[in-house]
Write a structure and sequence with these properties.
The protein is 39% helix and 20% strand. By secondary structure, the chain is of the alpha/beta class. The protein has an eight-stranded parallel beta sheet. Helix 7 links the parallel strand 7 and strand 8. Helix 6 runs parallel beside helix 7. The protein is globular and about 45 Å long.
């Protein structure tokens, strides 16, 4: 059974409260919230205030994905604003100790933490961290924008990571993000993916129907 995580990057912000209500009633359990700083990725999105607003309007699990240069500085800010999970990029911190320290800090606050890799980063880079995170996010597009085409090499990366996690005795979830639709959802699920982020696919149609298709 997979989890759909609609990405609010694709939400129609002229009808924000209506769309959050639709999400609440869609059967989705997660909301994926993309934070971009204009440095780590060439785009800007939302800060903690919008997250606080969504937290007030929804009880769904808030899955925050930060595409920012300084995930340490902003961790508490997003956790205190209502994030249930805080996923940052391995490419932003690089240093093994810093990555493990941030994971431990998030756990101390009673929250979940995720580690994300861009499509061009060697999967091997995740190996030292298999037992430190609740979730690993395989980016299936270059982070920064919604509506891009799924990179097919992601399915192989998911399958390899699945095997590594099993061998390490880790129960961490594997999440995929970018270019997910009915067809690519099938491919990543077969490879062992647990959580499917989808923006343009979900908000381009009836939300409930899209969630149903992604989760079946
Ligand atoms: C891209 C973001 C994604 C984005 C996915 O950098 O991390 O979460 O919303 O959008 P789609 O599903 O349209 O590819
Ligand atoms: Zn994302």
């Amino acid at each position: 059974m997979s989890i759909a995580a609609p990405s609010v990057l694709s939400l129609d912000y002229s009808r924000m409260s209506e769309q959050i209500r639709e999400l609440n009633e869609s059967g989705a359990k997660w909301i994926h919230y993309d934070v971009m700083d204009g440095h780590f990725v060439p785009n800007l999105s939302f800060g903690p205030d919008i997250l606080r607003g969504i937290r007030k309007a929804s009880d769904l699990y808030l899955d925050v994905h930060v595409m920012i240069e300084d995930p340490v500085r902003f961790a508490d800010i997003f956790l205190d604003a209502g994030a249930d999970n805080y996923t940052f990029h391995i490419e932003a911190l690089k240093d093994e100790k810093k990555i493990k320290d941030l994971a431990a800090h998030i756990h101390e606050k009673g929250k979940h933490c995720g580690l994300s890799v861009k499509p061009g980063t060697q999967l091997d880079a995740l190996k030292p961290f298999l037992n430190d995170f609740d979730l690993f996010l395989i980016m299936s597009v270059e982070p920064g924008f919604g509506g891009q085409k799924f990179n097919p090499s992601s399915t192989e990366r998911i399958a390899v990571l699945k095997q590594w996690l099993k061998e390490a005795g880790s129960h961490a979830l594997i999440e995929v993000d970018g270019g997910i639709n009915a067809e690519t959802a099938e491919l990543v699920k077969q490879a062992g993916c647990d959580v499917l982020v989808a923006g343009s696919y979900v908000f381009g149609q009836d939300i409930r129907k899209a969630v149903e298709i992604l989760e079946r």
